[in-house]
């Protein structure tokens, strides 16, 4: 009886340790089975950080830098695969964009529906000859793949805190078409349309991945505090979920709420301030010291002027700490790979850069928010 009791205890302890070990390996608190929705532009016709006025643009728009592989055209690869009669996609409007996302594969897209959503099809036009006689003529609308200006992703995120690596597994994605009405001659009011929803299978063998070349290298700003607000050039706030470029992630996602958001920021700051990872300037790629990082957050050893109880002004030395609430967004640096046989997109998260949003001391009413990229960390993104 005593031996049986000892065996039971040993079994329970083994089970507990095994569960704990799995939870730690899978990063239980930063759950890896939660879907994150990201709408990311893949063209720079609207905005690029390489144009003049870089600082002013960054203050009023989401950061975006793109480097395309001239040998891999996503639009052409997409159209070639979609022409395969055996290749099936899902109705993009059957997916709920609000959290929790409904990603059930329950409604196959209509045949060639994607073609019309991309602007293809046939129009019937009235044609008059020199004698005034009218005839009907069919005019084919050709597809412009350059109008595929963004992608709506549904990813599973996994953060490996021990090795400092972030993985994004693309579960599904939907190309977004940007176009203009025929009467919008000045191209001032862009329209956006979902093309089709893809759930590509991962059929790529591990040894084959190394042969793929990235079709896109991208750095883009991702908001952690989803306040449904965005800054315009007039320093006003507005929210427009139909605008791909001004869209701010929804506030329903629990991934970045309270504890997990703090955990993610704490990890980044801990790696940077405690010399656990090399820290770089985002633009120059020069190495930064701890004092440099603190200075970019407006903290460290400072001397301030105060008025004492006698009305006299005195100088006081203080040490200020980083205000984590000022980190409202991060810039992800990623490489995207495409399997042309399945249209599966693989993301390699290369690095992360926290963005500080703050107000100057003389902006008492806090009407003019400022932004700067504090530093850059590279992930250990072995795949």
Question: How would you sum up this structure, described in words?
Answer:
The chain has helices at 2-25, 54-60, 74-82, 113-117, 206-209, 258-273, 290-296, and strands at 35-41, 64-68, 121-128, 134-141, 148-160, 165-179, 191-194, 214-223, 300-307, 313-320, 327-339, 344-358, 370-373, 377-378. It is α+β, with helices and mostly antiparallel strands. It has one domain (36-378). The strands form three sheets. Strands 1, 2, 5, 6, 7, 8, 11, 12, 13 and 14 form a ten-stranded antiparallel β-sheet that branches. The protein has a two-stranded antiparallel ribbon with strand order 3-4. Strands 9-10 form a two-stranded antiparallel ribbon.
Please tag this protein with its features.
single chain; alpha+beta; two-stranded antiparallel ribbon; 7 helices; 14 strands; 19% helix; elongated
Helix and strand arrangement:
Elements: H1 2-25, E1 35-41, H2 54-60, E2 64-68, H3 74-82, H4 113-117, E3 121-128, E4 134-141, E5 148-160, E6 165-179, E7 191-194, H5 206-209, E8 214-223, H6 258-273, H7 290-296, E9 300-307, E10 313-320, E11 327-339, E12 344-358, E13 370-373, E14 377-378
Antiparallel strand pairs: 1-5, 2-8, 3-4, 5-6, 6-7, 6-12, 8-11, 9-10, 11-12, 12-13, 12-14
């Amino acid at each position: 009886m005593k031996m049986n009791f000892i065996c039971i205890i040993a079994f329970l302890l083994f089970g507990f340790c095994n569960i704990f070990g799995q939870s730690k390996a899978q990063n239980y608190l930063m759950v890896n089975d939660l879907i994150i929705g990201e709408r990311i532009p893949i063209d720079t016709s609207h905005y690029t950080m390489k144009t003049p006025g870089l600082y002013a643009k960054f203050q009023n728009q989401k950061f975006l830098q793109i480097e395309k592989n001239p040998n891999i055209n996503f639009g052409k690869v997409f159209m070639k695969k979609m022409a395969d009669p055996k290749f099936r996609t899902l109705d993009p409007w059957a997916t709920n964009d609000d959290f929790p996302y409904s990603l059930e594969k329950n409604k196959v897209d209509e045949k060639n529906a994607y073609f019309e959503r991309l602007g293809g099809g046939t129009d019937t036009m009235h044609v008059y000859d020199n004698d005034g006689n009218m005839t009907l003529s069919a005019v084919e609308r050709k597809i412009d793949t350059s109008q595929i200006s963004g992608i709506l992703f549904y990813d599973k995120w996994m953060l490996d805190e021990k090795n400092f690596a972030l993985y994004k597994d693309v579960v599904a994605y939907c190309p977004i078409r940007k176009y203009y009405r025929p009467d919008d001659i000045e191209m001032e009011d862009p329209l956006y349309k979902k093309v089709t929803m893809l759930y590509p299978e991962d059929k790529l063998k591990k040894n084959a991945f190394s042969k793929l070349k990235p079709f896109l290298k991208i750095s883009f700003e991702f908001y952690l505090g989803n306040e449904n607000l965005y800054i315009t050039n007039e320093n006003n706030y507005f929210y427009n979920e139909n605008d791909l470029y001004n869209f701010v992630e929804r506030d329903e996602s629990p991934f970045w709420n309270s504890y997990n958001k703090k955990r993610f920021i704490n990890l980044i700051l801990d790696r940077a301030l405690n010399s656990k990872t090399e820290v770089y300037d985002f633009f120059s790629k020069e190495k930064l010291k701890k004092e440099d990082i603190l200075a970019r957050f407006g903290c460290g050893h400072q001397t301030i002027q105060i008025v004492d109880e006698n009305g006299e002004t005195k100088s006081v030395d203080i040490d200020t700490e980083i205000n984590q609430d000022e980190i409202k967004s991060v810039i992800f640096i990623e490489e995207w790979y495409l399997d042309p046989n399945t249209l599966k997109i693989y993301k390699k998260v290369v690095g992360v850069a926290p963005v500080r949003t703050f107000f100057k001391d003389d902006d008492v009413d806090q009407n003019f928010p400022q932004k700067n990229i504090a530093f850059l960390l590279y992930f250990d993104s072995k795949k």
